[in-house]
UniProtKB/TrEMBL annotation:
<keyword id="KW-0560">Oxidoreductase</keyword>
<comment type="similarity">
    <text>Belongs to the isocitrate and isopropylmalate dehydrogenases family.</text>
</comment>
<keyword id="KW-0456">Lyase</keyword>
<dbReference type="InterPro" id="IPR011829">
    <property type="entry name" value="TTC_DH"/>
</dbReference>
<protein>
    <recommendedName>
        <fullName>D-malate dehydrogenase (decarboxylating)</fullName>
        <ecNumber>1.1.1.83</ecNumber>
    </recommendedName>
</protein>
<dbReference type="InterPro" id="IPR024084">
    <property type="entry name" value="IsoPropMal-DH-like_dom"/>
</dbReference>
<dbReference type="GO" id="GO:0009027">
    <property type="term" value="F:tartrate dehydrogenase activity"/>
</dbReference>
<dbReference type="InterPro" id="IPR019818">
    <property type="entry name" value="IsoCit/isopropylmalate_DH_CS"/>
</dbReference>
<keyword id="KW-0464">Manganese</keyword>
<feature type="domain" description="Isopropylmalate dehydrogenase-like">
    <location>
        <begin position="5"/>
        <end position="348"/>
    </location>
</feature>
<dbReference type="Pfam" id="PF00180">
    <property type="entry name" value="Iso_dh"/>
</dbReference>
<keyword id="KW-0479">Metal-binding</keyword>
<dbReference type="GO" id="GO:0046553">
    <property type="term" value="F:D-malate dehydrogenase (decarboxylating) (NAD+) activity"/>
</dbReference>
<dbReference type="GO" id="GO:0050319">
    <property type="term" value="F:tartrate decarboxylase activity"/>
</dbReference>
<dbReference type="InterPro" id="IPR050501">
    <property type="entry name" value="ICDH/IPMDH"/>
</dbReference>
<keyword id="KW-0520">NAD</keyword>
């Protein structure tokens, strides 16, 4: 039997509600498959924890998490806590300390009625964005000089190391080769004359090792246009931390909204735990009302199982989400239905084992 130990960080707002439905799915799979077992340990960290204790997580939180097989995160963010604190002191801290340098965001249309794009079908919107997740524009490097004075100057430094740039681009080439798909690099070399020129050069250098992979390279403004106008151009996309963050929200918009947006923060070498999360935010305005859409959280369970090597269950979950989306009435209000968070989770499990 394979035993997977999972750290739960439900976090803030609707986080606990959607994580509960993801855990429900994992427990149902455990019951159905005698070869898999899951254990769960919950950590109360997040913004409400910060308001009580002045910190987003325990001082030794990283040490507490390091021996788990995966981290399952619900949401981060709450009124009264600045976003740069909630993000950097929990989510980004975990990503950096555990070297989760690969961020995987699928942009997949599971039901053609969900896209706002005229005449686009499921075959037109089906690609994967591989985002650098450990440095780049989110490295946190810079300075704030002469604060509050007329000559005030703020420096925010993007950090693009050769190691960090090479490994994310190589990971993307490997995925493209394995899946026999095209690879598109997104940068901004015409304006960012150091970081993005370097990115483009590394992309070309590594590409010489993968002559079988067909490649494209777009400026981020053009890529943003094509995400909306011609999403069928893309199969696998690799880009920097900031550009990937922005582009994948466009991806969510064209596939049905943030309630379906999921993300995996991967340490490919498995030296540290990887982290899986819906990326829709904490939505404090509807927390506790049972209106939260749990589909993205369940989709992140699919990503987790893929990472564990349980691809059959990962595919089964994705297929079941596709089936679930066919019945609008069963969905949560954000998708035009009348179902509660718990209702959607229950119906999902019924369909998974039907």
């Amino acid at each position: 039997m394979k035993q997977f130990n999972i750290a739960l960080i439900p976090g803030d707002g609707i986080g606990s509600e959607v994580v509960a439905e993801g855990v429900k799915v994992l427990k149902a799979i455990e019951k159905a498959d005698s070869n898999i077992a899951f254990s769960f340990t919950e950590f109360p960290w997040g913004c409400e924890y910060y308001l009580k204790y002045g910190k987003m997580m325990d001082e030794d939180g990283i040490d507490q998490l390091k021996n788990y097989d995966a981290i399952y995160l619900g949401a981060v963010g709450y009124p009264g806590v600045p976003d740069h604190i909630s993000l950097r002191d929990l989510l980004i801290k975990i990503r950096k300390e555990f070297d989760q340098y690969v961020n995987l965001r699928p942009v997949t249309l599971l039901n053609p009625t969900l896209t706002p794009l005229k005449s686009k079908a499921e075959r037109d919107i089906d690609f994967l964005v591989i985002r650098e997740n450990s440095e780049g524009e989110y490295a946190g490097a810079g300075d704030w000089l002469y604060k509050g004075k007329p000559e005030e100057v703020v420096l925010q430094t993007g950090v693009f190391s050769r190691k960090g740039t090479e490994r994310i681009i190589r990971y993307a080439y490997e995925e493209a080769r394995k899946l026999k798909k095209t690879l598109t690099s997104v940068s901004k070399g015409n304006a960012l004359n150091y970081s993005m020129v370097f990115w483009d050069e590394v992309f070309e250098e590594i590409g010489k090792e993968y002559p079988d992979v067909k490649t494209y390279s777009y400026l981020v403004d053009a890529a943003s246009l094509y995400f909306v106008a011609e999403p069928e151009r893309f199969e696998i996309v690799v880009t920097s931390n900031l550009f990937g963050d922005i582009l994948t929200d466009i991806g969510a918009a064209i596939t049905g909204g943030m309630g379906l947006a999921t993300g995996a923060n991967i340490n490919p070498e498995k030296e540290f735990p990887s982290m899986f999360e819906p990326v829709h935010g904490s939505a404090p305005d509807i927390a506790g009302e049972g209106k939260a859409n749990p589909i993205a959280a369940i989709w992140s369970v699919s990503q987790m199982l893929d990472f564990f090597g349980e691809e059959a269950w990962g595919k089964a979950i994705l297929s079941t989400i596709r089936e679930l989306l066919m019945d609008t009435k069963a969905l949560t209000p954000d998708m035009g239905g009348k179902g509660s968070t718990k209702d959607v989770g229950d119906i999902f499990i019924e369909l998974l084992f039907a």
